[in-house]
Amino acid sequence: MPGRRGIVQVLAVLAAIALGDARSDTSPDELKARLESMAADPSASPALTDLAAVRSFYGARAFVAAWQGPACLERLADLSDAIKASDAHGLNSDVYHRSALARSKGCSLDTELAATDAWLSLAAHLRGGRTDPVTLEPDWTARRLDMDFAARLEQALAEDNVRESLLGLAPSQPFYRALKEALVQFRGHAARGGWPAIDDGPVLRAGDAGPRVQQLRSRLARGGLLDPSLAESTDPFDATLEAAVKTFQLSANLEPDGIVGAMTLSDLNQTAADRVAQLRVNLERWRWLPEDLGQKHIRVNIADFRLEARAAGAVEREHKVIVGRQYRRTPIFSGEISYLVLNPWWETPRRLTVQDKLPTFRQDPGAVDRLGFEIVDAQGRKVDPGSIDWATVTAQTFPFRLRQAPGPLNALGQVKIMFPNSHAVYLHDTPTRGLFSRVRRDFSSGCIRVEDALGLTAWILNGSPGWDRARIEKAVASGKETRVEVPARVPVHLLYLTVVPGTGNHVRFIDDIYGRDTAVLEALDG
Questions:
Q1: Cα–Cα distance between 41 and 6 in angstroms, integer?
Q2: Which of 135, 167, 199 is the last residue of a domain?
Q3: Per the database record, which ranges form the L,D-TPase catalytic domain (predicted)?
Q4: Rounded CA gap, 509 and 517, in Å?
Q5: Residue 354: which domain range?
Q6: Is the peptide bond preceding residue 46 cis, with omega within 30 degrees of 0?
Q7: Residue 233 domain-assigned (yes or no)
């Protein structure tokens, strides 16, 4: 018995035939033969992006042409409009047979196949990205909504809704729309020649003068950070210019010292074309995500060192976070918070035990007790640090586990928030809270340290019977490890976005701390 998809497709074909829209110059036998020929020789014209999807589509409709008939030219015009509009999403419209369809003056078999391939490919790319996130981010686990694109195309043709049926597949998130608007703006900058670069040279700071200071002033004025009337000023580097430099640095997640050193200069000299590429990469990353991130959920943008707690489409809390350093990067994936632990013991991972702690304890065995650690054997029995020959033990021969008791020195602080995953990554408090005052915060070993972690805990448990802020603080004050189940699981999305919302309608371009943008751009253009 045919499934729902088959029934929908058969009904759509029969409806099209009844309306006279499926009349064509191409017989099912001709269409089937052409597809079989193309399968045997992939170089055959026209080159299709996804031959398998096209063959499956026509096989399900008994190889009856889908576009040919009295409405063909109108449908192709709508398709061409949608393909042109794909440029506004940072995609390359040429991938979707734009030129071939524009040259077509009729509804030949080649045009028929190109149109179907274009629609199916663009639909998949708008819905889930042109690139496969798993090949670029091996840790990726965000679940995208599966969609029957063939059935959707049948419906679009039956309802003569080719254009909107495609463009409606793009993300509806407000910031996706903001990225599209910024893409138009920066493409305009690029078309007008961009902005002047600042020549290489020594560090620029308050009191300096010369042509490079004028270039700096002109660059910041073009970026809207200085009054345009100051763009051509030859005055020395004054307090107004220093304030503008600090504003720029803050927006880019650079230390706001008002000094134009190597990192600030490099960021200032990013061209308009560079920013266009960065916007395209981030539009693609949004397409990787599921449309529904959860009515109540948490987003962590690793590149921006920031956590948002969101509900009903609004940000209810924001927290600074500390993420993994270069050689211990925080992975990009999604999970669900199922429980949390107040006053947690820290079961130190083996890698950190032998790489970080063992060298310290070999130099100073007394640090084991002083820092609140316990050493346990394979059976879970405590081992006296004094019984270990620290002079001879190595990373390879150290047979014990290390754990740290709850308390003011515990690396996890007062709470760890668990969304079980294969990476052993979680959110947690920290005793070293002074690091949150830094602008760039990639200091961890992969897990995510959260400023005001107890405030986030209260937000997560809001609505859970008996767990208000007062009870949370009482449990913490007890000093005892306490596991708390989260009845309504909260989705967590660890993201990596290098263009983020700014003030007003503006966006901020931030540092690609892990150097991930280039690979996405190359795949997007490949």
A1: 28
A2: 167
A3: 296-487
A4: 12
A5: 347-405
A6: yes
A7: no
* Number of domains composing the chain: 3
Q: Are residues 69 and 128 in the same domain?
A: yes
Judge whether 286 lies within some domain.
no
156: which residues sit within 8 A by CB, 6+ positions away? Answer: 119, 162, 165, 166
Determine phi and psi for 472, rounding to 5 degrees. -60, -50
3-state secondary structure 83-139: HHHHHHHCCCHHHHCHHHHHHCCCCCHHHHHHHHHHHHHHHHHHHHCCCCHHHHCCC
Placement of tokens 């080159």 in the chain: 47
Residue 118 lies in a domain: yes
CA 464, 466, 467, 468 torsion-angle sign: positive
CA–CA dist 279, 322 (Å, integer): 25
Phi, psi of 427 (to 5 degrees): -95, 145
Alpha helices of 104-231 — where are they, by DSSP H? Answer: 109-128, 133-136, 149-158, 162-167, 174-191, 211-222
- Using a cut of 0.70, tell me whether the model's pTM lies above it: yes
Residue in this structure with the two tokens 């504003």, named with its chain if needed? 247
Angle among Cα 476, 440, 278 to the nearest 5 degrees reads 125
The 401-404 sheet, strands edge to edge:
346-347, 401-404, 373-376, 382-383
Confirm whether 201 is domain-assigned.
Answer: no
The CATH number of the domain holding residue 427 is 2.40.440.10
Q: Are the C-beta atoms of residues 59 and 5 closer than 8 Å to each other? A: no
Number of H helices, E strands in the chain: 20, 15
Most confident of 356-370, 371-385, 401-415: 401-415
CA distances from 391 to 54, 133, 397, 398 (A): 68, 47, 12, 12
Structure confidence by residue, pLDDT tens digits, 443-501: 999 999 999 999 999 999 998 888 999 999 999 999 999 999 999 999 999 999 999 99
Residue 7 carries which side chain, given as an amino acid letter? I
Which active-site residues does the annotation give? 428, 447
3-state secondary structure of 393: coil
Q: What are phi and psi of 85, to 5 degrees?
A: -65, -20
Residues 35 and 151 in one domain: yes
d(CA 107, CA 90): 29
